[in-house]
Automatic annotation (TrEMBL):
Membrane topology of the entry: Single-pass type I membrane protein
Protein name listed in UniProt: guanylate cyclase
Enzyme class, broadest EC rank: lyase
Record-linked SUPFAM superfamilies: Nucleotide cyclase
SMART domains, per the entry: CYCc
Transmembrane segments: 48-69, 351-371
Lineage: Eukaryota, Metazoa, Ecdysozoa, Arthropoda, Hexapoda
Pfam families listed in its UniProt record: Guanylate_cyc (PF00211), HNOBA (PF07701), NIT (PF08376)
A molecular function GO annotation: peptide receptor activity
Signal peptide: none
Organism field: Cacopsylla melanoneura
Disordered: region residues: 626-646
Family stated for the protein in its record: Belongs to the adenylyl cyclase class-4/guanylyl cyclase family.
Length: 690
């Protein structure tokens, strides 16, 4: 029992986080007591590690995130470029469609010797083509037959093409062109435009966009309609003359076959269009007649030619061509939807990337602060965290977190393991009480919301400050703040020093605190501390709370109530412990009447020597690491099941004197802080509170 009690006393009562209580990571390091290390290089190297080690993964993460964001921005620019290409491709597709219609109208006009077609007149068709050409912003360099002599003419801009088109129309109106010449000129123009569209689609195909399938289908559909239009011209000749020459018949079969192949490839690329095409065939009453006429021409069976049959054939095929153009409209709609979806995806990825970069930049300094006190155990924690993360359930994590917030970590762990925590007697602890002087007056002139916000702000400040000390916040009632040191894990005689240093820290913080809704009022804190025995345990079933009982609590409360603003009232018992610890500036107040105690000589705590304050701060860090290592060591022993541990050679820095806390480094070298008996305070100015 004495050995166990000494082990508990050697460990500080640091409040573990929920993550630390949920994971007891193993450790192969040995924690022992050894003399102080007087080498100052240890402190410098330690600080260097704290500064350098967190920066390495953070810088790598920032670089990686920046590269990912750059790739996302490149992807967005690529999608925007694809959108422009798609727009230009669809505009060129409209031009090809209008030229196809103009070719059919001009060819049929020449065939009928100037009679208007059954569908529209040429002036209307020419106006539609010109209107479509005007909407095209960019124009490729194309080579077309010269409208006068048939030589190849290179056209570098849209204006030259419009001029060449108008000259060709003029020549056709004067009936200087044959049907074959008209077919050759328009077909050459469409072939060049479709080839330019193909090159644009190839550029799009190199990207990760899914719109290329629709663009290829769009281009193939235009080629299918183009070949169908060419075959229709030969079909007109067949029905007008009754038969086709071998050369023209082969020409018809070639283009009609290409038309079908391209159409079926579209249905293969875009399966959704298959149902749409079947609906077209079902709703078109003359579809069977279209197939009959195409089959008749492919057989090239001689028949009695007539102009009326040619006109009927042209009108029938024009209707079928219009139905095919409905497929083109459906494809164009699919292209727009895909481009819109790609743009939305690119913007979403951009927002996510920017958010990640901002999050990394904001979280990075927080990470550096959080890992500063855990450099020695961060690798063990990370490795075991990865292993245990898969075993932890969400609901269990929530309940564990809530339990740790309500109870001290060690008590919470004991409660989880045994389902009951017996009350325990502590021979020596230090209890802290404080209240806000004039709080009643402040609350009287403030709204309830302002009072709540004020208390939240001041207690948030207090909670942040006490994180660095070996203390446990018991409760807050109104403006009363109660803290205790020395339980539930005993820390020897350090409890008085922890409470004293914490009180000075809180008093200094309060002096700089400003009440938001009453900035003209100075906040004044009244503090009382007392040391003595207490009894502590978990009270309640539905809402368990860790409570502290005993005369020490009452005396500490009376020390606070009989104190003065901006002063720390110390009892004789606490004064004796602080004097033994050294480094604290205490001033006798005089005799004070305490209820139930009579006349008692009390003291004011006015300050702490900077040298001792720095020394105790380093000792707190060492004790906190010891606490974490002991948690890990206990878990490791359970996992080993009594297995013999491998002995390690340990080099101890410093002479053996006192019982200073030490910690084993990764290289099996134990560095220790000097004990208080080894240190002699040098002559220096002391930090005092007026």
């Amino acid at each position: 029992m004495s050995q166990n009690r000494s082990d508990e006393d050697s460990l500080s009562n640091w409040s573990l986080s929920s993550a630390e209580t949920a994971y007891n990571f193993p450790s192969n390091q040995k924690t022992t007591f050894c003399p102080g290390d007087k080498t100052p290089a240890y402190d410098r190297s330690r600080r260097l590690q704290l500064l350098v080690l967190p920066f390495i993964p953070i810088v790598a993460l920032i670089v990686q995130t920046s590269i990912a964001l750059n790739e996302i921005l490149d992807y967005r620019n690529e999608v925007m470029a694809i959108e422009e290409q798609v727009i230009e491709a669809t505009k060129l597709g409209k031009v090809v469609t209008q030229i196809q219609l103009e070719r059919s109208e001009v060819a049929f006009r020449l065939f009928t010797n100037g009679n208007n077609t059954l569908r529209s007149n040429l002036s209307t068709r020419f106006a539609d083509v010109d209107r479509t050409l005007s909407s095209v912003s960019t124009w490729p360099v194309i080579s077309v037959p010269h409208y006068a002599n048939g030589t190849v003419l290179t056209i570098v801009n849209k204006t030259e093409f419009i001029h060449s088109l108008q000259e060709f129309r003029k020549k056709s109106n004067e009936k200087q062109n044959s049907i074959d010449e008209v077919l050759h000129w328009y077909t050459s123009v469409n072939a060049v435009l479709l080839e330019h569209m193909t090159q644009q689609i190839k550029e799009t195909d190199r990207s990760s966009s899914s719109v290329w399938r629709y663009l290829i289908s769009f281009k193939n559909l235009l080629r299918s309609i183009e070949n169908f239009g060419i075959s229709v011209v030969q079909g007109i000749n067949y029905f007008a003359r009754g038969s086709l020459s071998r050369e023209k018949h082969l020409y018809y079969v070639q283009h009609d076959t290409i038309c079908n192949d391209l159409l079926y490839s579209i249905l293969h690329y875009i399966p959704d269009l298959h149902e749409f095409y079947e609906e077209i065939k079902k709703n078109m009453t003359d579809y069977k007649l279209v197939e009959e006429r195409r089959g008749q021409i492919q057989l090239n069976t001689p028949t009695q030619g007539s102009d009326s049959m040619a006109i009927d054939y042209f009108d029938l095929m024009a209707k079928y061509t219009d139905e095919l153009r409905r497929l083109k409209d459906e494809l164009r709609r699919g292209i727009k939807e895909n481009v819109k979806a790609d743009l939305h995806d690119a913007k979403y990825k951009e927002y996510i990337g920017i958010s990640i970069v901002i999050l990394v930049l904001v979280v990075s300094p927080i990470i550096i602060i959080l890992v500063r006190n855990a450099v020695a155990t961060i690798q063990m924690f990370a490795a075991h965290l990865a292993q245990k993360a898969h075993e932890l359930k969400r609901e269990k994590h929530k309940s564990d977190t809530l339990l740790v917030q309500m109870l001290p970590p060690s008590v919470a762990m004991q409660l989880k393991q045994t389902q009951q925590v017996p009350a325990e007697y502590y021979e020596a602890v230090t209890v802290y009480f404080s209240d806000i002087v004039g709080f009643t007056e402040i609350a009287a002139v403030s709204t309830p919301l302002e009072v709540v916000n004020f208390l939240n702000s001041i207690y948030k400040l207090f909670d942040a400050r006490i994180e660095g000390y070996d203390v446990y916040k018991v409760e807050t009632i109104g403006d009363v703040y109660m803290v205790v040191s020395g339980l539930p894990i005993r820390n020897g005689e350090q409890h008085a020093g922890e409470i004293a240093s914490m009180s000075l820290d809180l008093l200094e913080a309060v002096k700089r605190f400003t009440v938001r809704h009453r900035p003209q009022d100075d906040l004044k804190l009244r503090i009382g501390i007392h040391s003595g025995p207490v009894c502590a345990g978990v009270v309640g079933l539905k809402m368990p709370r860790y409570c502290v009982f005993g005369d020490t609590v009452n005396t500490s409360s009376r020390m606070e109530s009989t104190g003065e603003a901006l002063k720390i009232h110390v009892s004789p018992e606490c004064h004796r412990l602080l004097t033994h610890l050294q480094g604290y500036h205490l001033k006798e107040r005089g005799t004070v009447e305490l209820k139930g105690k009579g006349s008692v000589v009390t003291y004011w705590l006015t300050g702490e020597d900077p040298f001792y304050r720095s020394m105790r701060s380093e000792q707190r860090v060492m004790r906190r690491n010891q606490t974490k290592l002991k948690h890990g060591g206990s878990k490791m022993k359970k996992q080993q099941g009594g297995a013999t541990a491998t002995s390690n050679t340990v080099v101890i820095n410093g002479a053996n004197s006192g019982d200073s806390p030490c910690i084993n480094n990764n290289n099996n070298t134990i560095n220790c802080l000097p004990s208080q008996q080894q240190l002699l305070p040098p002559a220096r100015s002391s930090l005092k509170i007026p």
